[in-house]
Design a protein that fits this description.
Order of helices and strands: EHEEEHEHEHEHEHEHEEEHEHEHEHE
Distance between the termini: 20 Å
Structural class: alpha/beta
Shape: elongated
Strand order of the largest sheet: 1-16-15-14-2-5-6
Strand content: 15-25%
Number of helices: 11
Bound molecules: magnesium ion
CATH topology of the largest domain: Rossmann fold
Mean pLDDT: 91
Number of domains: 2
Helix content: 25-40%
Amino acid sequence: MMEGGTTIKLLDLPGQQVSEWLRSFDTVLSDGDGTIWQDDTEIEGAAAVLNALQNHHGKRVYIITNNGLKTRSELFGRAQHLGFQVPNDQHIISPTATIVEHLKQLPDFDSSKHKVYVVGNAAIGRELRENGIESYGAGVEEPLAKGDKWQDFAMRELTKPEAADNVGAVVVGWDEHFSYCKMARACHILCRNENSAFLVTNRDAVHKYPNFCIPGTGAFVAGIEACAGREALEMGKPNPVVLEPLIQSGALRPQRTLMIGDCPKMDIAFARNCGMQSLLVGTGSFPLDILQQNSHLPQPDFYLPKLGDLLQFL
Ligand SMILES: [Mg+2]
């Protein structure tokens, strides 16, 4: 739908053309934060638009987020609470759920034998447990004991066979308790056990931008990659692997899918990587005029100041 690389402002189009455009896709993927909600608050009009697309226009609607701080069922609960009528939790695509799906289809991973080491928050551990996969490490963990030197820690923990044996994967997510010890355990597993998978929820370099500029998951991942000499596989946007289960099952055809989001590097790049149309909304970190001044960033096919603006056409 991109015409000469120019982003089309939907509010500038006559209603008839918007109706034609609405008929050009049958599946809608929408980002979460900055697009339809901000943490636990709906962005005004977003639920009404997604519900109308689903209930009145027959679109299949999925919410696709890089939020690895909640499980799929917790995100579904938030969606319901905020008035989004997605039919079930399978319509939530989240990194924690993608990690589970990916591990289950890995030939080298056996959930009856392998456990997962998590450098990340407790939600990753909950999602794995709910799906019958044992994990350890998520959440709070004691750093070096008082008086400990790194040699003491390494001798105490990393010389044991169980420090790397039977660990089928290292999963990294956002972790406010990130520490040298966690990084050391992760690197030890990845170096000692080359069959272990190395998965990350996302590579967002900065957390909670633009309100803060503090380390995001990508910062932790980069440190572990540098030491382990291995590249992590991203289980969030913009990696197209996220959509493989839906594409393989025939539930989603990229050429008939619209991706809605607020972040060019994640959402618009994801749409482009998957061959989908893209709609940028201006409720996140990137107003269109700023984006257009940064031509190296992926430019969207369509633009709306906020998703709720689409309601007048539905
Ligand atoms: Mg967003």
